Amino acid sequence: MRVVVGRFTLAHGAAWVLGAALLLFLAVPIILLVVLGAAGIGEALRDHETIAALEMTFGTAAVATVLAALCGSPIAYALSRRSFRGRTLIAAVVDLPLLIPHPVAGIAILLLISRNTTFGSALLDLGLRVVGTPAGIVAAMLFVSAPLYISAAREAFARVDRRYEFVARTLGDTPWAAFRRVTLPLSRRGLASATIVTWARAVSEFGAVVVLAYNPKVVSVLSYDRFTTGGLRDALPIAATLVLVSLVPLIALRALRYDRSNEAVS
Questions:
Q1: Does 142 have pLDDT greater than 50?
Q2: pTM here?
Q3: What per-residue string of b and e applies to 58-67 under the rule 16 or more CB within 10 Å gives b?
Q4: Of the candidates 248, 150, 156, which has an alpha carbon nearest to the alpha carbon of residue 203?
Q5: How far apart (Å, rounded) are the C-alpha atoms in residues 133 and 241?
Q6: What are residue 5's phi and psi, to 5 degrees?
Q7: Residue 72 — pLDDT band, cuts 50, 70, 90?
């Protein structure tokens, strides 16, 4: 027999308790990290190594994001608009990096670009060393974050009514002109959200980066390095700084969604 208390069943109440427990589990560690590490953030931001790591992180994440947008947008558009042989396979290949443990992703990239491989050796002959350089960091960030861009951009393109493109084509636009003048402006908010998510994911990457380029250090690697050498106390300020940095793209995403909802209402 089901026991009813007011408008809620005991099962309903238990579901809320379980949900609240998970919410606390997600929120409390982050709150503790920020609160306990806040006192050392000012000192961390005066540390030359921390500043260098922040600059390296933001710069390489920006390059990875630009590459993901330039190379990923055609893929996202094709997946959202075209039906072709191998479409399902391409979509699976794009999503696969999301399922691979990130240290494994770093090892996989290393198999392609290390100096002992054909491709890596060719890059060295051209004077481009990837492993242990900012280029290696970009490669790791791009591998783990590009699938997020393609997925979000695909949804943004799919939300644009194809009839607008057909009208542009009937008025004499080429496919590229129709994309540039119609599809791109109408999907700009979705693409902006995709770009923000991609950058944020690139900034937070650790596993693939540490395999390809332990040095020069990004913030996530520096935080781990401080933890292994100096313990929790030394790692807290940098970790707290990284959490606060993560709030910036989160706020930007919320602002974009708020603007989009206001446009829909109006």
A1: yes
A2: 0.85
A3: bebbebbbeb
A4: 248
A5: 24
A6: -120, 105
A7: very high
